[in-house]
Amino acid sequence: MIRLSQLFLTTLRDDPAEADAVSHRLLLRAGYIRRAGSGLFAWLPLGLRVRRRIEEIVRQEMTAAGAQEVLFPGLLPREPYERTGRWTEYGDGIFRLQDRKGADHLLAPTHEEVFTLLVQDVVSSYKQLPLTIYQIQDKYRDETRPRAGLLRAREFTMKDAYSFDITDEGLAASYQAQRDAYERIFQRLGLDYVIVAADAGAMGGSRSEEFLHPTAIGEDAFVRSASGYAANVEAFTTLVPDAIGFDDAPAAVVHDTPATPTIDTLVAHANEHQPRATPWTAADTLKNVVLRLTHLDGSRELVVVGLPGDREVDEKRAEVAFQPAEVESATEADFAANPGLVKGYIGPWSAAGAVLGEQSTTGIRYLLDPRVVDGTTWLTGANEDGRHVFGLVAGRDFVGDGTVEVASVREGDPAPDGSGPVTIERGMEIGHVFQLGRKYAEALGLQVLDESGRLQTVTMGSYGIGVTRNLAAIVEGHHDDKGIVWPREIAPFDVHVVATGRDEAVFAIAEQLVADIEATGLEVLFDDRAKVSPGVKFGDAELIGVPRVVVVGRGAVEGLGELWDRATGERAEVRLDEVVARLQQG
Amino acid sequence: MIRLSQLFLTTLRDDPAEADAVSHRLLLRAGYIRRAGSGLFAWLPLGLRVRRRIEEIVRQEMTAAGAQEVLFPGLLPREPYERTGRWTEYGDGIFRLQDRKGADHLLAPTHEEVFTLLVQDVVSSYKQLPLTIYQIQDKYRDETRPRAGLLRAREFTMKDAYSFDITDEGLAASYQAQRDAYERIFQRLGLDYVIVAADAGAMGGSRSEEFLHPTAIGEDAFVRSASGYAANVEAFTTLVPDAIGFDDAPAAVVHDTPATPTIDTLVAHANEHQPRATPWTAADTLKNVVLRLTHLDGSRELVVVGLPGDREVDEKRAEVAFQPAEVESATEADFAANPGLVKGYIGPWSAAGAVLGEQSTTGIRYLLDPRVVDGTTWLTGANEDGRHVFGLVAGRDFVGDGTVEVASVREGDPAPDGSGPVTIERGMEIGHVFQLGRKYAEALGLQVLDESGRLQTVTMGSYGIGVTRNLAAIVEGHHDDKGIVWPREIAPFDVHVVATGRDEAVFAIAEQLVADIEATGLEVLFDDRAKVSPGVKFGDAELIGVPRVVVVGRGAVEGLGELWDRATGERAEVRLDEVVARLQQG
């Protein structure tokens, strides 16, 4: 039993100015956390209790899934991350430091490398596999803009697990075991989730899924169809239409289209000067967007992407499509340096040459949206100032150097698996499972002897759940205007007993009741504060959010109290000698 | 139950080259930890289990002492440490880093500042005090030379507690509560300890004690008398002798003493050229040692310390005596720049002038060992090359600018409390309790309202126990030539069941026995490995160090096994159907 009169806690009546998400606001107001720096938080006793309960659930499910717990430091030397290339790939996203001898270190954002090396040290034979090991550990990322409290912090706690197998089938089984464990964990945490296909590229792997908690404040957009397809927007792939025959297509014609550097002005011009039965729309145009890539080695490259004029380049999809290069829009200087790129009038140039301007564009890759299949006909730039070409046919008049998935996704787009149109929702990433394959084992030389005594490179998976982030996600999904409404399994206490008034007899009855409740194994927060009004006590109870509240007030001397259900708001008079039984019934 | 066949573990037959302490060697060999970098360690499942048991004991005793658990990040901003001056004071001893915006941060070695700020945020009235809050948290120090495994690592786990009181009496009570809790913790951990007075200066406090575990490999020397006095060498104070009358003392005389720049040569010369009834010894001479201090602001200062010639300047005592300045020996350049300091012939110069050389030594402080009381007579340098002065009387011929405790301590020196001669032993610091007083609260403005509504500055204590270090300390004290011998309360398992041979019936019996043992609440490590020889299994059991081992071998079919006590080495045949009862008896 913890007495509120002694608990290291202060609740706040008003919303703290620093809070920019519901969970951040409520966890501060109810005294669960405090700011310790930008994106850094201190955990007060109430917060730590919830955190421990979440960790315990994760631990139980990891054990049930056959995973074994280990623990690494947060501070690690550069060398293993150098060997896999991630020391460079991480860019500004991680904290780096040097020790007194000038040796480079990092605060690890994830531990693939050192888990691989640890297994290399401990395991030598297939007999010791399959193996899944995990840790619950504090991680660091140097976020550009820490925000939303625990949802995007610079220090955060994760469970990260890594599986080791010899065969692809083994990896698939280990992956499935973790995926199943994640489903059980989120069910126990009371967190809605959608499993979406994710891009595996950044981790160098082959299969990847994210667990997203659907919420309007989620930083991730995801799509799903009614019949089960789900992917985050970055991993969404276009359902490629069939090619169209173009034998009968008329020849392309270039027209003067002065002052039409945008899709809108071009469409208006076409409808006025080249009208046709069906009016021209943006979807008839082929927009050519110049992007600037910065590769890992620092070298830069311009690429031009051709996509239907009614779509934009989606920044996140472009990031994924071109990773590990960084993507930006081309600058005025880029255009100036490449006079072949006539801004506002760029057209394809990998074609037979008909539509190419005089200036050379040699060396600039031209990539196409997958919808631009052979036989599709486009209104697009003629690579000359003030001119566009009408009726340009893909596959006849131009071809790309490849396709790329950077176009924005829209509600109603067909799911790639043929399961129909998709909707777009927002979600918060609460878990992630990856099939890494052999990338890390190859880079770090993790091999074991197989049954026939030959060395085999191990195949790996990587599985992460944010502990502190999920705690905040739960608050996002479990609160009302009065405060937090904890799911029972992770509430800081099972029961909150509030004694009101100034009658010592009442407090003595409450004290006895607390003892009786705790005798059943339930944990109690006891508001024993003298000289605090019932209103303040009730407000604190609602803010703190323990699932069940027992009020012991004046009626106590007649053996009566009140039992509140925080979630439903139900309040019922109850005989105090029945409280324990009622609480045990659930 | 954990099956050894599946446990993520490998034991090593040979001592790893990297290991330079018994605990380091055994924890590596038995598969408890692995190296993750210089002074950085990964915890394997066995190690993590022991660690958690220690943490749980610490947590229980903290709760019993009324302390509440919180948790801070390891990464913290510079600002609070700047306000107390410790950002500078820490020097090279901590890890520092900048975030992407260039803001300074540190990996905190201790958390006084942020606990003070947290309490300032949460507490406003004396009614919320006394308060003791603690965390079990990973800390960092950029050690010059990480060594001895967990004993001097760069990342380590500590329980650090901080108490907050209004009155000095309150602080004394909070301090005592933590001190008592520490005694209980060490008793439960099976760790011998001596509580020694320590210097409180570095933390800015008023009272400080260290818990030292006596061991030959300890990095701390401490002294104790038979009747209870104990202090670390840095905190030892000299029992100052009474002053002596000098009215009848003959005048001092300067003699030529060519080629006597050392105490040995001087004593030999004196005995040859100025013989007396009792031969001259080093104890008759006053040695004057030039030290160079570097202050926090980077400025340098020379000081000269006069001490009996049979004592050395103790580096650690000098460090403490002059902190926060750094102390080094004076260099040739220092002597060259100060011709008044005649190397090998330095004498006191704060006296009436009689023994001063011609060269000025203005501005150099002259400090005396406390034994150089008024009336003591000395043979010392005459501040002239090749000359010494005989019969120089303290208080008559010279006085110091103060006293300083830098002289080495010797076995047999009298304890300062009059409790008799001391012995010197070595110990390892396993806990530390400090009365910080109001230094941090003043620097950071922590005040609360007292009963009369006035703001009062809070007085604080700080209390630390190393979790990972103590784990290693326990191994240092609990092992034999075969491996670790865990005390029962922190062993990774309660019972280690070893099934031997290849008879499936035997393994089935062992399996059932394990289930029966676990039904009583004991945790079992089950060596179920097929195709591993009994010798290897027994060796692993002894190396791993679970307190009780049950061997189930051929006799099992007749209902017989063996019960081993790892600590005593006792091995007895036992009826398998009596094993559970025997284990429960203890």
Notes on the structure:
- 2 copies of one chain form a homodimer.
- Helices cover 25% and strands 29% of the residues of chain A.
- With 586 residues, the first copy, chain A, is α+β, with helices and mostly antiparallel strands.
- In chain A, helix 1 (22-29) packs across helix 11 and helix 2 (45-64) runs antiparallel to helix 6.
- In chain A, the strands form 7 sheets. In chain A, strands 4, 8, 9, 10, 11, 12, 13, 21 and 24 form a 9-stranded mixed β-sheet that branches. In chain A, strands 14, 15, 16, 17, 18, 19 and 20 form a 7-stranded mixed β-sheet that branches. In chain A, strands 1-28-27-29-30-31 form a 6-stranded mixed β-sheet, with helices on both faces.
- The longest helix of chain A has 22 residues, at 168-189.
- Chain A has 3 domains: 49-236 and 423-476, Bira Bifunctional Protein, Domain 2 (BirA Bifunctional Protein, domain 2, 2-Layer Sandwich), CATH 3.30.930.10; 253-393, YbaK protein; 493-585, Rossmann fold.
- The interface between A and B is large, with 50 and 50 residues.
